[in-house]
């Protein structure tokens, strides 16, 4: 009996090992199959008129995709459309405020009329609000949530029926390291980006059975030139200075073109999540492994930041000082001109 029992146990163990091997093989095969080509695919990029969104639009055009961009400012949208069309390929530019579900539905309908169903959705539209907590109002939090949570949800729900019907699709949600680590003086931004990470992770788990891959992107600071169009409160000139300088220096910030390529590759593979840039990776790991130490360090950083309770909003380009016009921000100023963040773009 003991010998027979041992033989049966051995057979069972071998069976389990074989099953595990088959599972691993099927998993690897699925990973290989998940890579897609963007040739002749329709890619919709919200907030695609400038900054990272425009960089992604250029990248997808080079991949042979039909690109749709949307934005709220007609002049910025028109400049982006003109530039993208000059690169070749098919481009559609649609005025749309993604915080309005009616406008989102109308935009997706216009995409269907021109190109058919959306194959890839990139939820990129975003705003940046910087200032001490006491300078922020409920409207600031509502605006951040509307843009970073409801906007991606509205656009996703608009394209989802066709993706499910075809059993295929890619959705990329551009969150931030601010959605992993809440950054001082950016509380509305971070809170809304945390919400987007939760939404994105949950959608990935539920939509995988429908052949739809959802990717959450959490980049650190990137040199896109976007601080010029961000809003600043409190001591707005000092707030703009620390944010703009940190977002311009190599090491603290990432080359935006490189970040764009990484995001497109993550979309191609159907990755669950991508942390873009070493600071973002280090911040996420630190928050997960040493939350108390991370909280203490962030509290120390907060004490070094400018203080003030003024609730008036000022754009970045209204908060310039000699420091923000110095060599410290040269890389970001060049990026702003390249990426349609100014009224006089250069390429």
TrEMBL record:
<dbReference type="GO" id="GO:0016491">
    <property type="term" value="F:oxidoreductase activity"/>
</dbReference>
<feature type="compositionally biased region" description="Basic and acidic residues">
    <location>
        <begin position="338"/>
        <end position="347"/>
    </location>
</feature>
<protein>
    <submittedName>
        <fullName>3-oxoacyl-[acyl-carrier protein] reductase</fullName>
    </submittedName>
</protein>
<feature type="domain" description="Ketoreductase">
    <location>
        <begin position="41"/>
        <end position="225"/>
    </location>
</feature>
<dbReference type="InterPro" id="IPR036291">
    <property type="entry name" value="NAD(P)-bd_dom_sf"/>
</dbReference>
<comment type="similarity">
    <text>Belongs to the short-chain dehydrogenases/reductases (SDR) family.</text>
</comment>
<dbReference type="InterPro" id="IPR002347">
    <property type="entry name" value="SDR_fam"/>
</dbReference>
<dbReference type="InterPro" id="IPR057326">
    <property type="entry name" value="KR_dom"/>
</dbReference>
<dbReference type="GO" id="GO:0016020">
    <property type="term" value="C:membrane"/>
</dbReference>
<keyword id="KW-0560">Oxidoreductase</keyword>
<feature type="region of interest" description="Disordered">
    <location>
        <begin position="308"/>
        <end position="347"/>
    </location>
</feature>
<dbReference type="Pfam" id="PF00106">
    <property type="entry name" value="adh_short"/>
</dbReference>
<dbReference type="InterPro" id="IPR020904">
    <property type="entry name" value="Sc_DH/Rdtase_CS"/>
</dbReference>
């Amino acid at each position: 009996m003991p010998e027979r029992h041992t033989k049966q146990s051995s057979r069972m163990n071998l069976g389990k090992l074989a099953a595990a091997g088959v599972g691993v093989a099927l998993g690897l095969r699925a990973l290989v199959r998940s890579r897609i080509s963007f040739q002749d695919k329709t890619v919709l990029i919200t907030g695609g008129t400038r900054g990272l969104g425009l960089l992604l639009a250029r990248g997808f055009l080079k991949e042979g995709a039909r690109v749709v961009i949307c934005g709220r400012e007609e002049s910025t949208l028109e400049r982006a459309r003109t530039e993208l069309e000059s690169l070749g390929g098919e481009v559609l530019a649609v005025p749309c405020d993604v915080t309005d579900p009616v406008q989102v539905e109308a935009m997706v309908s216009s995409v269907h009329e021109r190109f058919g169903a959306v194959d890839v959705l990139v939820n990129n539209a975003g705003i940046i609000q910087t200032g001490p907590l006491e300078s922020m109002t409920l409207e600031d939090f509502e605006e951040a949530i509307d843009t970073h949570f409801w906007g991606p949800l509205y656009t996703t729900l608009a394209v989802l029926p066709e993706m499910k019907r075809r059993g295929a699709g890619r959705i990329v949600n551009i969150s931030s390291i601010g959605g992993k680590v809440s950054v001082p003086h950016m509380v509305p931004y971070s809170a809304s980006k945390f919400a987007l990470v939760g939404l994105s992770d949950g959608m990935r788990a539920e939509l995988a059975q429908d052949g739809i891959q959802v990717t959450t992107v959490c980049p650190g600071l990137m040199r896109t030139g976007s601080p010029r169009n961000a809003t600043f409160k409190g001591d707005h000139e000092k707030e703009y200075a620390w944010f703009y300088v940190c977002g311009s220096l190599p090491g603290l910030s990432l080359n935006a073109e490189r970040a764009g390529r990484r995001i497109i590759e993550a979309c191609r593979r159907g990755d669950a999540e991508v942390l873009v840039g070493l600071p973002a990776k280090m911040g996420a790991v630190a928050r997960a492994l040493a939350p108390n130490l991370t909280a203490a360090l962030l509290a120390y950083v907060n004490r070094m930041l400018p203080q003030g309770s003024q609730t008036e909003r000022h754009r970045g380009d209204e908060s310039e000082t000699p420091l923000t016009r110095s060599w410290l921000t040269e890389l970001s100023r060049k990026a702003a001109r390249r990426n349609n963040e100014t009224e006089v773009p250069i390429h």
